[in-house]
Amino acid sequence: MTTGEMVATVFKYGGISAAAVVGLYAALLGLLSTPTFQVHVVYLHKIQMTWFKDLDVPESFGFMRNQVTPFFLESSDGEKLYAWHILPIELYRKHEVTLLEEHVDFISDITSRHAFKLLRDDPDARLILHFHGAAGTVGSGYRVPNYRALSAGQPGKIHVLTFDYRGFGKSTGTPSEEGILLDAHAVIDWAMNTAGIPSNRILVFAQSMGTAVSVAISNHLARSSPPVVFAGTVLVAPFVDAATLASSYRLAGTIPLLSPIAKIPLLFTYLQRFMRDKWSTKDRIAQYIRANEANAEKYRMTLIHAEDDYDVPWDHTTTLFWHAVNATTPVGISYDELEEKKSETKKDLGAAGTVMEWHTEYGTIREEILKTGLHDVIMGNPVITMAVMRIFQALDPSFTCQVD
Hints:
Residues 128-291 form the AB hydrolase-1 domain. This protein is an alpha/beta fold. 42% of the residues lie in helices and 16% in strands.
């Protein structure tokens, strides 16, 4: 074979390969425009990540006997949502004898359980509503260490309620933006009306996709009459909106979904018309801040992101922080102006990253950019415990870890 023939062969088969890749990518785009395929790609709800374990046996995830109470609560449209009520470890220790005597079968009426009564009947109890990310269940991955980190600051008082959205794990239904917001409302209704915990003793914690859910429902409640505002909100690895995330998201940190198309603005704008669920956190976070400022409601929000997060780039948090801060002033502030203020006032913590706080008469918005933590590992780190305690103690300085 001559050199010319070799070159021709390379171009021939290279062209075929390129055409195949383009064809496959075009087919992917076609699938992404269909609602059913979108649901699976956006929510990944069929990926359980709790293989060979039974969610009804929380002990298999490292919990003590009856430290966790699995139960179902119901959404307003009739979907059954699977949930865990998790006791903090020191409270468990104090009531271990009674808890060990209870049977461990799945309970249809959680109000009959001793753990529930410890939450409902303690006027000093705090409750964290946990909104997890896409894929998996309440027992997946780094979520279990996350629950421990959430209550570690006051292990005698901080309960955690975590749940699976519709279509996830044992929960019924199919996920959608509208439906998941009904789920969030059902969880909040359970916390405030069934468990009887007032909003000032409830903290909202969310990670990844859960940040979009929590901001949406918090915004809805803050703009209701009368408004409902929780003790605070902690958002870990949030994203600006679904379209912006899709434009930068890479499967396993390497395989781009829509980033090639995002470089062609007209085409990307056209494709956005087919996105069913928008999850526009940037708009909702601004509305939430404006509502609290207008209603003179006290609020605290912490946004946390790691620079080495390859699932959701950390600049999503800096953008959301700007949208939140911009909403605090009638005249607004440009992104560049805020960056200039950051350079003057943010705390440089070296290998631990940077911290910036924005204070108004009614609220505090805190941005923490960590050097490391990835997308999920961060959830079990002390930074989470500190964020929770910082918010609870801002409302009640006496809320500290007490030793018998």
